[in-house]
Amino acid sequence: MPKITYVNVDGDQTSVDVPAGTSVMRGAVFNDIDGIVAQCGGNMQCATCHVYVDEATLDKLDPPQEQEDEMLGFTACPRRPNSRLSCQLKSSDALDGLIVHTPERQN
Known about the structure:
- Helix content is 12%, strand content 19%.
- The chain has helices at 24-30, 66-71; strands at 3-7, 13-17, 50-53, 83-85, 99-101.
């Protein structure tokens, strides 16, 4: 099962197994990870699942699709080149070892 590591703003890390096909956002919600609000439940309507993908694992991802790219303009914390919506990142063997950092705030 792919392992995803969530790093909060204090630097505390939590690594969890996220079943393939499950979003990185749902992996956080199911495992009580602080820093991912997910108000819309993963429907790409709120940007409260914004994460910064660690530069060391950024190459594991395809670029964001147009709708995600547009929604990243509405994040509470500044958008960066490594910003993604965790609801759009589906766990897979290719994402095993992915590291995401939660922003200071989501809304």
